[in-house]
Amino acid sequence: MIVRPAQESDIGPMRSLIDRYASEDRMLERSDAFLRANLSDFLVAEDEGAFLGCGALASLTPDLAELRSLAVAPDAGGKGVGTAIVAACVERARERGLRRVFALTLVPDFFTKCGFTLTSLGRLPEKSASECPVCPKRFRCDEHAMLLHLDGSTPPGLAPGEPVGYTRLFLHTEPS
User: Fold this and answer.
1) Of 51, 108, 121, 153, which sits 20 to 30 A from 101 (CA to CA)?
2) For the residues 109-126, what does the mean pLDDT come to?
3) Span(s) in the chain for CATH 3.40.630.30
4) Span 1-98: which CATH code?
């Protein structure tokens, strides 16, 4: 298996996989136009030419990037594909001189195994103030914020009673 930068020919397989999970409300949809416009953010895992999954590292500030659109083909699950994509995104962040990487996820245990710490979205105002208010899931956000400091320090974890997700944090309601 290799993880490599995405190419134009990967847009179809990436969209198909992402849309599959989006139809199950497990991630956000991504249009062909979005994938094309952000192609340089994406990495693809493949084995002997077979598409196994994808993920993107999107810089929000000179300090912070989001690992987003992480998707692994169902038949490739549990084989280290997601872990390899996360590791490649983290390495890309280091190469760019970023200090922090975060992900919003429904699978926090996976990211914990990758070294991330569960935290509050409120500690990521670069995301919560810019993109969350226009997200289609803002009124039913059930994602967990996971943060990794690239200097090896451990970010502050989620405090008891501290809200996770945009809906609880800013709208003070449970996701519907």
Assistant:
1) 51
2) 86
3) 1-98
4) 3.40.630.30
